[in-house]
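Handout, section B. The chain below has 394 residues.
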Amino acid sequence: MTTSLPRPDRIRRAIELLRNDTTDKFDDVFGFSADEFIDPALAQEERDYVFGRVPSIVAHGNEIAKTYDFITVQMPRNNVLVVRQKDGGVKAFVNLCRHRGALIEENEKGRCRVFSCPYHRWSYDPDGSLRMITRDNTFGEIDRSRYGLVELPCEERHGFIWVVDNAQASINVAEWLGPEMDAILAGYHLDELVCFRAAGFDEPTNWKIMQDAFLDGYHIQYAHPNSAGKIIHTNVMAFEDFGRHCRFIAPRKSIDRWLEEDPGDQPLDPYVTETHFLLPNSTLLRQPDHFQLLTFRPHPTDPKKSRMEQRLMVPSVEASGIDKDHWNNRWEKNWQILLTVLHSEDFPLLRNSQHGMGSADAGDMLLGRNEVANQVYHREIRKLLAEGRAAASR
């Protein structure tokens, strides 16, 4: 198993695996059951013991770059409003008026100096404080400091905005990532990139089925024969396991020229894609000239539904050294290719998997020794659930 090697060495490791028609592997297969994708009780535990306890990514900071920019997010436990503050920081709140519970903000994104409830026009400042109670002379005396928007733990780090979906929790992203992954993300300078496009898709599929598909280097030639299968080698991964998180390098087919000759000091970065799994629900793809972020969230009530979000993060026009029209055309074409593959290849397969998991006699199933990132994902989710159950029983 590849561990803590410099990137050039890991790429050479991937070439060696390719030469030998193999991949990094775990020692054993890993069992699971269909119930994990359909059980309402387990789904409630995932919402509380996973998303209610640990940080997950809700946006790239560039999406709310200016003061008072905001986005709204449906998290597994709460409707969430994330706002860029006057001091440059970010805050996250439960998107709910403290009067009668109406949504404070219905738009997915925008810019707002005062958030006003459409029901009775109570209003709140961007820092969440209660600004105004309409007709307050008739409402009654209250302590306004206690009735601002409910704040959720939120932190911006490595260009991403992270939230713990629980007002009683705390957040420390560096601690959650651990020293290895925190240093890896710091080295990418993701905060210097811009989010060219972001989009969300509500799917009739459990979030774990969705996440699994985007950690899997085993299905590429079979599920994507005319797209990714033409570009990336199947079932070849130089892998690193960091405990909660992991990453692997997959060689592109353009690397084949170096199978029969030594590349010497030739940089090999353009010949690989690197996948990072960030527990609990994100896949970060490092491509030769950009990054993609894929996130997967459970539905608030239905274990058979989830939301996937995709983000394309690229160098700015100025950093790219090309004119704006060329820059726009280039990344728009890339974005459309990504969407086409998702909608025509990935989503139909995953909906089909969810349908299959509903079989009463599905039987036991397996992740192979070669499905290393998937094994890490399921191993770590099970650990979080066990920790949550233990804490709840104390």
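Note. The chain has two domains: 7-54+173-393, 56-157. Compare this with the example in section A.
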